[in-house]
Write a sequence for this structure.
């Protein structure tokens, strides 16, 4: 090794180890210094951006992004309520800033999300007098929204989460209790994919959902994406969100999900990865944002900090997860974390508000956790794709 790369490795390693390890064995000198170096060409490695980061108010998060990631997703600012808060009144400012930030750092840009039952204003489904709009009018609003949003970022956003979370957790059927599907049925989904493709024929298009390790939900999603494809519509991959815990889902269930989609000819992406360290009340393991519970001290056990044995458990869990990602990297095109530091995670407020969770690879101060090192080690040691 010549002197310069060796120094780079040493400096990088020192940065990575900062605050977590005192003395290091000699073998650690060859550890890649960043997450994206460790991932290499296996898949894109991304993070979701909070609105504060997009506004320039999270310098540590911004620095972590530029160093460790090559793909970004907006956590909120491209959702309907942000981008078209009132009929025909578009507010692109924050989405434009997200795109400019990504272009500056030469990131792959992911758009999230064009059609969802959540964070969509009520007016979308109503006439001026508050009555429900007709099927034709709703289709027209959907198409106009997608044409405006995808059209604005044509050639810039590489791929879109066109439809988010359309399938029920318990029986794998369409969420016909939500206005999109009550009024339009499956046509809503076909129209969304069609409009997105028309607005940017080069953009990749995805269906995105959580709990795909649950076989019943997965079967419903598989049926849906096959129906999209059977219509002759473009669909490039299925996004599996990956809102997981320490012992759920099992690695077997994660692999079963990969296998079912890839055997049916779909690429897979992990689009919203995090691992909650907190107990889930009433065994609720989903990510349905409207589900909230009351807090209690035993449900928020690590307010003062995460004990070392728990840090180690998280590191082990991330290591086993990334070992599976490495194994399936020929069918896995991207892995995106839902946030950068623990402070930025939605899990501090879900499914109970105001808790202290530790689901990501950097702590609240933006220092690397043992889990980061564990992920980098497992990627270094995994066979090349
Ligand atoms: O991270 C997002 C959080 O800031 C919002 O409050 C929440 C509101 O719906 O949405 C979060 O992101 C969700 C994503 O868009 C879709 N899958 C579940 C994510 C976590 O709720």
């Amino acid at each position: 090794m010549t002197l310069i790369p060796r120094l780079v490795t040493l400096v990088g390693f020192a940065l990575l180890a900062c605050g977590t390890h005192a003395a290091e064995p000699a073998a650690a000198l060859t550890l890649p210094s960043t997450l994206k170096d460790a991932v290499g060409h296996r898949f894109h490695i991304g993070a979701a951006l909070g609105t504060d980061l997009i506004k320039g108010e999270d310098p540590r998060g911004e620095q972590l992004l530029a160093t460790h990631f090559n793909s970004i997703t907006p956590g909120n600012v491209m959702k309907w309520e942000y981008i078209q808060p009132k009929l025909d009144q578009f507010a692109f400012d924050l989405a434009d800033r997200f795109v400019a930030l990504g272009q500056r750092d030469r990131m792959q840009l992911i758009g999230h999300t064009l059609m969802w039952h959540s964070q969509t204003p009520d007016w979308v489904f109503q006439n001026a007098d508050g009555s429900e709009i007709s099927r034709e009018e709703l289709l027209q609003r959907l198409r106009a929204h997608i044409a405006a949003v995808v059209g604005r970022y044509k050639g810039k956003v590489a791929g879109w989460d066109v439809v988010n979370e359309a399938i029920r957790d318990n029986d794998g059927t369409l969420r016909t209790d939500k206005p999109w599907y009550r009024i339009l049925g499956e046509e809503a989904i076909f129209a969304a994919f069609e409009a997105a493709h028309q607005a940017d024929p080069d953009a990749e298009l995805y269906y995105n959902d959580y709990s795909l390790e649950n076989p019943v939900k997965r079967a419903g999603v598989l049926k849906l994406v096959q129906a999209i494809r059977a219509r002759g519509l473009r669909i490039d991959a299925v996004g599996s969100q990956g809102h997981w815990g320490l012992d759920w889902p099992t690695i077997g269930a994660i692999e079963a999900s990969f296998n079912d989609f890839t055997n049916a000819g779909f690429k897979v992406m992990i689009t919203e990865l995090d691992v909650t360290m907190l107990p889930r009340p009433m065994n609720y393991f989903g990510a349905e944002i409207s589900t909230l519970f009351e807090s209690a001290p035993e449900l928020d056990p690590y307010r003062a900090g995460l004990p070392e044995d728990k840090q180690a458990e998280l590191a082990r869990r991330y290591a086993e997860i990334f070992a599976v990602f490495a194994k399936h990297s020929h069918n896995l095109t991207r892995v995106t974390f839902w946030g950068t530091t623990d402070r930025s995670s939605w899990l501090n407020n879900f499914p109970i508000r105001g808790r202290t969770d530790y689901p990501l690879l950097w702590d609240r101060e933006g220092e690397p956790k043992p889990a980061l090192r564990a992920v980098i080690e497992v990627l270094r040691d995994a066979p090349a794709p």
